[in-house]
Design goal:
This protein is of the alpha+beta class. It has 17 helices and 35 strands. Strand 32 and strand 33 form a beta hairpin.
Length: about 700
């Protein structure tokens, strides 16, 4: 029997899902273990093996592959916890990363931050100026050599960086995406001086026009590359010692995996890898349930994540923003705020209750964990409100202390606001639901979609406790809580469902209509790159799918729209169809008649994405059907629960999920206890168990 395992390493918990493609699906959860997150991976695999009833060595020996997702790269960049790196660029262009194309003052800012002009700054440079050095060379816009590379000046700069103890060197020269020869030669010079030095080239990491974004992408990839290389190397060594037979794969932000040995070469592609796992899982589950428009929401221990699936496909983006820097990395579009189950509640100077963005994380954790934490969190409020069971999480393996939760809320929230402990806990619950609802509104409504056309999927350890409330905030009527064997490990299920996805891109700006020969040459070059990379993955695929697209814009605009280009030979008619499709997508994004064809259309960047389809497609097994809708046999008791501060505590039926059957119906208010999560069915809603064991919550 062969298994596939998905492992999702979060800031608080590490989740895993095992599937044998024959109906067996197991899920496990273990605390994350910072700073050595690899130990948490080993711990959760041990739990899986225990459930499977065999030694972990036997399980891993029969594992086809492990798909691993981690937030460590993203967290390192966001918190600035990265080693010193060097930056080499064309003479006269060093300060582009400090000027930041003016964008550095506002990229990624909230509307409130944008209005606070006096509070804006560009004090977030990626590297100190002593580590940003120039080399003499110059290419023109067509990639022709205007000034040859001065190798002596390059060696001098490299020696200065190596002597100063940098962990890696980012090389980003002007117009190198049209001709990478100078960058490639500099890498050779670096390795002549220090053969072990980690080097990233912009012509490989981000061969895209626009200097600031290309520089920032290459530098950030260099900042996390050495750490990712060391972490994956250590983890893979531990797994091999435990007899792992198949490869270790790493999830990328584009929704697909890549071999662990390949991931550090383009480390920036793994940023947000865990964030996309839930969206991939939503696509897989949506296929089984017949849902094509899905809002995927994940409330983990640290963050609240939202992604969209529209007409059966995840919404994609060609770039993202990290710490006010534009990053060129194809990604599934996922929005996040620091509002997870471990998000800390606090009172600001104006006497307003705030939730997050800081989290108690796994260590020390919420106050109720009894591990030394003193800050009140969402988890503490949920325990005081009766939502969480006093016996603890993970079926009692993670005990909770209600008195510690009450004390944290009393001292930090209740007394400063003049509230009772119970009212303060209810306020925390309400603010959490309101601000997660705000992110949903931003993600769905501001993208031009009607939330009423979507089904909301809710997962993560804390998601099922809040989902019905934040769905109501935006008018979504139907909520699906994926339970069965995956429950709060749904992102890990998405990782197990993922295929190998690789992408290559190249900027070659030109006015439409394009020369079909030129366009076809670019696509052929990129397809050769991704197919060669696919061969290096060391896996056998049941099929290979190729997608092509061009980032296009109206002349003089700064932002492009990714426009699909059909496979096959590209002729003048195909180029014309691409222009028409660009205008159609532009109108969908920005409104009918918002385009201006008379300005002309430009093709900027070509992109090829290839998917290697793996021989595993996890599907959730069907649940035994109930004889009637009456779920009273699964009821395990009643407890006082407060789901609405205006109503207060009410007697609420509590159900054991393990005894629920397909077709059982629960009338709210109700609580469903699952070993890895807790589901809230609020007042004026109905919960129905579907054929896969998911709980569908529908507003009455």
């Amino acid at each position: 029997m062969a298994y596939v395992i998905g492992v999702d390493v979060g800031g608080t918990f590490t989740d895993a899902v095992l599937d044998d493609n024959a109906g067996t699906v197991l899920a496990a959860k273990a605390p994350s273990t910072p700073p050595d997150y690899s130990q948490g991976v080993i711990d959760v695999l041990d739990v899986l093996a225990e459930q499977l009833g065999c030694p972990v060595e036997e399980m891993l020996a029969n594992t086809h592959h492990i798909a691993h997702g981690t937030t460590s790269s993203l967290n390192a960049l966001v918190m600035g916890n990265v080693p010193p790196v060097g930056f080499l660029t064309t003479k006269g262009h060093r300060d582009s990363i400090y000027i930041m194309n003016v964008e550095g003052r506002y990229l990624g800012s909230s509307p409130e931050q944008l209005q606070n002009v006096m509070g804006q700054s560009k004090s977030h440079g990626l590297v100190p100026k002593k580590h940003a050095l120039e080399v003499t060379e110059r290419l023109d816009r067509d990639g022709n050599v205007v000034v040859a590379l001065d190798e002596d000046s390059a060696r001098e700069a490299i020696h200065a960086l190596v002597d100063d103890g940098v962990s890696g060197i980012a090389v980003s020269l002007l117009w190198s995406f049209r001709n990478p020869a100078h960058e490639q030669r500099i890498r050779e010079l670096v390795h002549e001086i220090d053969p072990t030095m980690f080097v990233s080239l912009s012509s490989e990491v981000s061969p895209r026009i626009r200097e600031f974004a290309r520089n920032a992408t290459t530098i950030m990839s260099t900042q996390i590359g050495p750490g990712l290389r060391d972490y994956l190397g250590e983890l893979e060594s531990k797994l091999r010692d435990r007899k792992l037979a198949g490869p270790l794969l790493v999830m990328q932000s584009n929704g697909g995996a890549v071999a662990a040995a390949e991931a550090p070469k383009n480390a920036i592609s793994t940023v947000g890898s865990v964030l996309t796992g839930g969206v991939v899982g939503a696509v897989s589950l949506g296929t089984q349930l017949g849902h094509r428009n899905i809002i995927a929401t994940d409330v983990g221990g640290t963050t609240f994540l939202v992604g969209l699936v529209v007409d059966g496909e995840p919404v994609r983006a060609s770039s993202t923003i990290i710490n006010h820097h534009p990053i060129n990395v194809p990604t599934l579009e996922v929005h996040a705020i620091g509002s997870g189950g471990g998000a800390i509640a606090w009172v600001d100077q104006g006497g307003n209750l705030q939730i997050g963005p800081h989290s108690a994380q796994a260590v020390p954790g919420p106050a109720c964990y009894g591990q030394g934490g003193t800050e009140p969190t969402n988890a503490d409020a949920n325990l005081v409100l009766g939502i969480l069971p006093e016996r603890g999480l993970l079926g009692g393996r993670k005990p909770l202390d209600k008195e510690l939760a009450r004390e944290a809320i009393r001292t930090r929230i209740a007394e400063p606001l003049g509230l009772s402990i119970e009212d303060a806990a209810a306020a925390i619950y309400a603010v959490q639901n309101a601000q997660t609802g705000d992110l949903l509104r931003k993600t769905v409504v501001e993208a031009g979609h009607d939330p009423r056309d979507f089904v909301l999927y809710a997962f993560g350890g804390a998601g099922p406790a809040h989902c019905a409330a934040y769905a109501r905030e935006v008018g979504v009527r139907e909520v699906v809580v994926p339970l069965g064997q995956v429950a709060s490990a749904f992102s890990a299920y998405g990782l197990a469902s993922s295929n190998i996805v690789l992408a290559a891109e190249l900027s070659d700006p030109a006015a439409m209509p394009l020369d079909p020969v030129r366009a076809e040459r670019n696509f052929d070059q990129l397809e050769q790159q991704v197919r060669a990379a696919l061969d290096r993955q060391g896996l056998k695929f049941t099929g290979v799918e190729v997608e092509r697209e061009i980032d296009m814009r109206y002349t003089m605009q700064l932002a492009e729209v990714a426009t699909p280009v059909p496979a096959g030979s590209l002729d003048a008619e195909g180029v014309a169809r691409a222009s028409d499709l660009f205008e159609q997508r532009y109108a969908e994004l920005y409104g009918q008649d918002s385009g201006f064809r008379e300005a002309g259309i430009q093709a900027i960047t070509y992109r090829v994405r290839v998917t290697g389809v793996l021989p595993f497609s996890p599907t959730l097994p069907e649940l035994k059907s109930a004889d009637s809708a009456d779920a009273s046999a699964a009821k395990i008791g009643t407890r006082k629960v407060c789901l609405d501060g205006r109503i207060g505590y009410t007697d609420t039926d509590v159900y054991d999920y393990s005894t629920l059957l397909a077709g059982h119906v629960l009338q709210g208010p109700a609580i469903v206890e699952v070993p890895t999560t807790t589901v809230v069915v609020p007042h004026e809603t109905t919960g129905t168990v579907d054929r896969l064991g998911n709980l569908n919550i529908v507003a009455q």
